[in-house]
Amino acid sequence: MSKSTDEQVNRRDFMKTAIIAIGGVIGGAIGLPAIPYLIGPAQKQDSEDWVRLGAVSKVELNVPTLFKTTIETQTGWINAEEEFSVYVLTENGQDYSVMSNICTHLGCRVRWIPDQESFFCPCHNAVFAKDGTVVAGPPPRPLDQFEYKVEDGFIFVKRG
Amino acid sequence: MNEQEKKSYLQRYKEAKEKGVPFFPDIIFKDAVVSLIVFLILVALAYFVGAPVEERANPNDTNYTPRPEWYFLFLFQLLKYFPGNLEVIGAMILPGLFVILLLVLPFIDKSPKRHFRNRPFASIAALAVVGGIGVLTVLSVMEAPPPQEAVVVDHAAALYIKNCANCHGENIDVPPSTDLHQVIAAGTHEGMPAWGGDLSTDEIDQLVGFILSPNGSAIYVQQCETCHDQMVQAVGNPLELQRVFREGENYPGHEGVDVPDWNETLTTVERNALLNFLAAPDGQRLFTINCAGCHGQGVAFAGTEEELRTLISQGGHDLAMPAWKGTLSESDLDTLASYVTDPQSEPAGDVLFGQHCAACHGEKVPSAPDKESAIQIISRGGAHMTMPLWGNILTQEQLDALAQYTFEVSRGEGTGLGATLFVEYCTACHGQFGEGGPNPSLAGDIIPPISTSEYLTTREDTTLRNIIAQGQPNFGMSPFGDEHGGPLDSTQLDALVAFIRSWESNPPVDEPPIFQTETPPPTPEVTAPTSEPVPSLTGGQLYTIACASCHGAQGEGGIGPAFNTQEFQDQYDDRALFDIISEDHTATPMVVWGEHLSDEQIQLLVEQVRILGGAIPTEPSTVSFSGQVVPLFQAKCQVCHNSQTALGGWDSTSYEAVTTTGNSANVVIPGDMLNSVLAQRVAGTQGAIMPPSGKMPDAEIQIILDWIAAGAPEN
Amino acid sequence: MAANLMNWLDERLGWRSVWEAIFLRKVPHVNWFYTLGSATLFLAVTQGITGILLTLYYVPDPAHAYDSVVYITTQLPMGWFIRGLHHWGASAMVILTVAHLLRVFFLGAYKYPREITWITGVFLLLIVIGFGFTGYLLPWDQKAYWATTVGTRIIGVAPGIGEWLLRVARGGSELSAVTLARFFGTHVWILPASLLTLLGVHLYLVIRIGISAVPEKDE
Fold first, then answer.
1. Do residues B469 and B631 lie in contact, with contact meaning Cβ atoms separated by under 8 Å?
2. Within the 26-85 window of chain C, which residues sit less than 8 Å (CB to CB) from chain A?
3. Which of B89, B235, B460, B512 is most buried as measured by Cβ atoms within 10 A of its Cβ?
4. Which of C25, C39, C84 sits opposite B50 (nearest CB)?
5. Which residue in chain C is spatially nearest to A1 when comparing CA positions?
6. What are B625-669's pLDDT values in tens digits?
7. What are the tens digits of pLDDT across the range A36-71?
8. Which of A12, A58, A115 sits opposite B202 (nearest CB)?
9. Do B201 and A66 touch (CB under 8 A)?
10. Assembly ipTM
11. Inter-chain contact B25–A16, Cβ cutoff 8 Å?
12. Contact call for residues C111 and C212 (beta carbons, < 8 A)
């Protein structure tokens, strides 16, 4: 060994510092990402979204048109797929009314009976008119309406 | 290695250690540096390459090329050289021996030599093993193709298989001009359910597209489904679709997307198949998507179907609106302008619109933002909104379907087929709304109403269909199905049944009206069904339905006044006639037709009354019984009215029988056209029209009427 | 202050002698190839940490395994990083372990007195391969499923008891939820326990006997 003891000591100090530094870098590189990784799910906000129903051109004039979309509610990796069905009615191709297909009585699904020009709920024989108003049966109020918007030829509704 | 060698090794190692360095920090520093490098490589890989996730595991996917992890690839390559029973060598024996060799290596190789140059055999053997593994791995990578992309599923085909294939098999042969969307949504009356409540409109459209163009569905899966996982995203609008082909990468939705030039990669046939899939050649849907925006629910068109097709395909470059200024008064212009600005505000505009605009605009009232611009547009006319050249946009199939549908709608066919057939074949006996009446074939028998909800709920479609097809000979109803010798084919029968069935939810007749066989039947109290618009009928047909029972088939009068007199024709102008027909008449039993008929139809009736006015009876011409009447009887009557069957007690086979038989009265009363049952029946003035299969041509009716009027001579 | 604390601890823990025995011991001059073992150890620790982090979200069930992996990769903040490190770390483990083995082989370090160290090392290599094989299935994607299908099929080649062994490995005749569960259990319990045990022996021997010196050519 030609190096002097002083040089040896300096070199070893440097190496010690370097080892600590490298350890810090690697530890930080794993440890810091681990924090958001661990608390991430707590930070997630529930968002209220516009749900796209489909092309406006699919809505027939004067006939309530059924649109079905599946809404994915995600909790972690569990994707609950909720089927979301609405009837869209337009009388002039410009103004729409988006109606829930859930009977306001006890929540059965109503369906449009073309021959009778009305919605029919099979559970208690409720009948709703084309615009969703109650014609017969027990429902306390007309079919629920959704807020909607039309963008780029697609119709969207706001859930909730 | 003997004891001596061991000792010498330990001695040398001790010396090396003493000359060495402390483990910390010298050695650890090196370790840390290498670890850092390794870690940085991993971070780079994680950042730039990432951890791949393929499609979810699909045990049923037989197309996936299974490949092990890369460090097992050599083993797999090795297996290829040990086929069949030898496989166990490559799979177990060789790897097993290798591991055992590694484990016992220190006990086999006991030589004290440590440096690899001093151990040429071991070193070369090791290099050979490493090299061999490397070569096998490379070979494996080269030979096995990279895993294919998972096969994408044809959603439309899946829908079809799930919902339709059970009954319909692999494909459905759809007759042209079928409104397939409607059929699927509402079901048919042959046990097919209405899917409208279970499938969304999009899904039904997919199905229609698939049924009409299965190849298009396959092409869609190939070309589009990578990005458009559902058809939802592809607008079924032919205008947009053509733009996609024409503009390629420049199409707004495809900007920045690496789309192929479909005009190059797909043949015309394939492109058409794709278009047919996305916008199915389904006349009604095409009309709704493409035409309803301007034309409402239908177009008035008087030409042939071929002309209509040409018009649609060549577009409306010449369809400029005339300048209405000058043609219309200022106040009319003003009314129309207010009407198109806000239809509610100007009820009078409805009439004006109907007179001047509806011929081109159909039922759809164009909307104008404000009155000023509306006045300007109407006054100036011009090509303010021209029709696209659909020939460049639609495929042949789509064009055909659209033209056919539009044509049929313009003629009141299509969806109204059943209603038309009913008027043609059934109203004679069953009344316009199925209310029934005295049985023309069976004296004293009353045909009960067939349009009550009670009647319809207790009879299935097949029952109704059988009754119509096979007739009810006991009650004098002749068979109508073509397999039983009648005039209606299977489709027409279905349409008829469907029309009758449509009453079930909205019965036009609540209870059977009371008929008296002796006195002329009062006009049945009927309500026009709201859901079934009265099909477009000619003035003559309307007259027969609405007026002839009281006013006579030729306007000769009956309960109501006669029209075929000069005084009547001079007494009222058209406006007055129109009002008389449409308005209420408290003093007479005349129906308030304004409640049942549209203004256009009443206008037709006015015209018909004028026509009849021109047909003032002249001197009866000489008609030959044997030459003209007998052949008619033979052709039209003798099937039912012969000496054996003699329905209604009438025998039409000889002059003797013709003039002397009949259940209630003699069927032919020479010289008395009004009271001769034969005249009433063939002209449709009273009771049901004969023959039941439909009214005879006017010329033939005239022969019989003239013959009776002339005193029914046997000449 | 710090020194007092260290003394106080040393009186009770005796850490200074351990520190001196492990870290301040003298070792021969060695070249950079001798860092491969330490790098492998470092990777093992990293894999342990990232692996533990992954188990916080991973679900070893066919219905959710894929979804949870996708969730980790795409939804969780830094999830892609943790999983990326673990994924590439697995391959790096295999490479470094084999490289370490080759270094030991070519420099004759498996010879007296380090035979046991070598044997534990060979077992550690098998464990590393076992980690790779069991871990590969866990994402339950196409690649994982089919690689494991063909990988386990090799076991079935064994004469006589092959079919039975295959059923044991898979927990049935086909890859199933049982396979996934036992692969997961092996990956996070059996193999780490084995690894720690053997690694303990391996490191104890390395420290006790000392790192081998670079052999001289003329020796």
1. no
2. 46, 49-50, 53, 56-57, 59, 64, 67-68, 70-71, 75-79, 81-82, 85
3. B235
4. C84
5. C29
6. 777 788 777 777 776 677 766 667 777 777 877 777 777 677 787
7. 999 988 877 665 677 777 777 777 777 888 888 777
8. A58
9. yes
10. 0.95
11. yes
12. no
Length of chain A equals 160
Q: Does domain A50-158 have CATH number 2.102.10.10?
A: yes
pLDDT higher for B534 or B471?
B471
Determine which of A69-73, B701-705, C34-38, C110-114 has the lowest per-residue pLDDT on average. Answer: A69-73
Judging contacts by C-beta atoms under 8 Å, the chain C residues touching residue B126 are 102, 105-106
- Choose which CATH entry (3.40.50.2000, 1.20.810.10, 1.10.10.10, 1.20.120.10) describes domain C35-209: 1.20.810.10
Residue whose entry in the numeric block shows the structure tokens 């000496």: B643
Chain C: touching chains (3 or more CB pairs < 8 Å): A, B
Highest mean pLDDT among B66-75, B85-94, B240-249, C91-100: C91-100
Q: Strand A78-90 and strand A50-55: pairing?
A: unpaired
Helix (H, G, I), strand (E, B) or coil at C141: strand
**Spans of all domains in chain A:** 1-44, 50-158
| Cross-strand pairs, B181 | none
Does the distance separating the beta carbons of B18 and C26 come in below 8 Å? Answer: yes
For residue B617, the distance in angstroms to the closest alpha carbon of chain A comes to 47
- Using the 8-state DSSP alphabet, how is residue B118 labeled? G
Q: Bigger pLDDT: B296 or C128?
A: C128
d(C-alpha C24, C-alpha B329), whole Å: 113
Query: Residue B602: pLDDT above 50?
Result: yes
| C110-127: average pLDDT | 94
CA distances from C148 to A160, C123, C183, C185 (A): 45, 22, 10, 16
Yes or no, beta carbons of B57 and C140 under 8 Å apart: yes
Nearest to B292 among A22, A61, A116 (CB): A61
Range among A71-75, B58-62, B565-569, C15-19 rated most confident: C15-19
Name every residue in B having a CB less than 8 A away from some CB of A.
22, 25-26, 28-29, 32-33, 35-36, 39, 43, 185-186, 196-197, 199-203, 205, 232, 235-237, 288-289, 292-293, 297, 367, 502, 504-506, 531
Q: Could you tell me which residue, B305 or B72, shows the higher pLDDT? A: B72
Closest CA to C82 of B46, B576, A26: B46
Residue with the two structure tokens 């409402």: B296
Whether residue C23 and residue B20 make contact (CB cut-off 8 A), yes or no, is no
> Residue B619 has what pLDDT?
45
Contact B201 A54 (CB under 8 A): yes
Which residues of chain A neighbour B366 with C-beta distances below 8 Å?
A: none
Nearest residue in B to C147, CA atom: B68
Here the tokens at position C4 are 């007092």
Contact between B237 and A29 using a beta-carbon 8 Å cutoff: no
Tell me which residue of C65, C58, C76, B47 sits closest to A39, measured CA to CA.
Answer: C76
Residue B148 has pLDDT above 60, yes or no: no
Domain spans, chain C: 35-209
* DSSP secondary structure of C163-174: HHHHHHHHTSSS
SS3 label, residue A149: strand
Burial class (CB in 10 A: 0-12, 13-18, 19+), B491: exposed
Give the CB-side neighbour count of residue B485, counting CA atoms within 13 A.
5
Nearest CA in chain C to A75: C71
Compare B366 and C140 and report the one with higher pLDDT: C140
Task: Classify A102 as helix, strand or coil.
Answer: strand
Q: What is the DSSP code (8-state) at residue A74?
A: E
pLDDT average, residue stretch C133-158: 89
DSSP per position, B170-238: S---PPTT--HHHHHHH--SSSPPPGGGTS-HHHHHHHHHHHH-HHHHHHHHHHTTTT-SSGGGS---H
